[in-house]
Design a protein that fits this description.
Elements (H helix, E strand, L loop, with lengths): L1 H23 L2 E11 L6 E9 L7 E8 L3 E10 L2 E4 L2 E7 L2 E8 L5 E7 L2 E3 L2 E8 L4 E10 L4 E7 L4 E5 L2 E5 L3 E3 L5 E9 L5 H6 L16 H33 L18 E2 L6 E2 L19
Parallel strand pairs: 1-11
Antiparallel strand pairs: 1-2, 2-8, 3-7, 4-5, 4-8, 6-7, 9-10, 10-16, 11-14, 11-15, 12-16, 13-14, 17-18
Length: 300
């Protein structure tokens, strides 16, 4: 009797956490998978957008699985207007052949996580496989594939339901599906590409219109030359006027220099000439320096 009671008690203890875990399982109103191959790295960028059903009790912790060779780069929540901000999460840990990380959801807003995963190559053909095995029921499940550049063929399984072009890029959209709790979803992608050009590189150098002299924001010397010549002319005229007024002020302020009327003290003395040879002599001379004749000095 005691053994039976003990077995029942152990069974109840084991059954309680299982039932409690089952009651805390969340359902997702939608999951949108986005696959951007060779976008800004030569690998696959996987973006997973999701939202919990409004009948889910919050807060709730969701656990997701990604491949072991994946590099988780972001976990974020929608803050409105399509803008996402980083959200707290537990770092991935290895669990078997997958990496597992957890996110605590506290409101009924879209959340997302992103990671890079290597591509497989077969010549010019790229091969990628995705597996959804997170165990949550999903009301609306959908994928979106961005076609990379220089692609000659694309194969998606399950195949895409629609195709559209935006900003010169082609997007393939898978049809809506419903995933039950515990069900998995597999997507196989194959495409052939003739170059290694990344999408982000081509977008960075994309020119909508040829650049010419009339392109807005472009400075043209031919269009600016009349303004440059006009500006130089105005500067020359202004400089001339400034020089003219400055020179006029200096001329008006300067006084004429007086000429020196100083005379040599000998200028007032009558000149002396030799009566014999006519040579000019100094007033102090008594005899001619040329012929030696005696000079005559007039009395002043």
């Amino acid at each position: 009797m005691r053994k039976l009671l003990l077995i029942l008690l152990l069974g109840a203890c084991l059954a309680f956490p299982i039932s409690a875990f089952a009651q805390s399982d969340a359902e997702l109103s939608f999951v949108k998978l986005q696959f951007w191959p060779e976008y800004d790295q030569p690998s696959m960028l996987v973006i997973v957008d999701f939202q919990v059903e409004e009948n889910t009790s919050l807060p709730v912790t969701l656990t997701f699985r990604i491949p072991t060779d994946a590099n988780l780069i972001a976990v974020a929540s929608d803050v409105g207007g399509g803008q996402f901000m980083n959200a707290p999460y537990e770092q991935p840990v290895t669990a078997g052949d997958t990496l597992v990380f957890s996110i605590t959801i506290e409101d009924y807003t879209p959340h997302r996580y992103e990671y890079y995963q290597p591509l497989s190559f077969d010549g010019e053909t790229r091969i990628f496989s995705y597996l959804w095995n997170n165990g949550y029921a999903v009301e609306n499940f959908q994928y979106l594939f961005l076609e990379p550049l220089d692609v000659t063929s694309v194969s998606l399984d399950p195949t895409f339901a629609s195709q559209e072009t935006s900003n010169g890029l082609d997007y393939y959209s898978g049809g809506l599906a419903q995933i039950g709790a515990g069900e998995s979803y597999t997507l196989s992608i194959r495409y052939t590409k003739t170059s290694n050009t990344l999408v982000s590189q081509a977008q960075a150098v994309q020119i909508a219109e040829p650049v010419n002299e009339d392109t807005p924001g472009r400075v043209s010397l031919a269009n600016s030359l009349p303004y440059i010549i006009g500006g130089l002319g105005i500067l020359m005229i202004a400089g001339g006027l400034m020089y003219y007024f400055q020179w006029g002020r200096r001329s008006a302020g300067s006084k004429p220099r007086k000429r020196s009327n100083a005379q040599s003290p000998h200028d007032n003395v009558a000149s002396v000439y030799c009566p014999q040879c006519g040579a000019r002599a100094k007033p102090s001379d008594r005899f001619c320096r040329t012929c030696g004749s005696r000079l005559r000095h007039e009395q002043s």
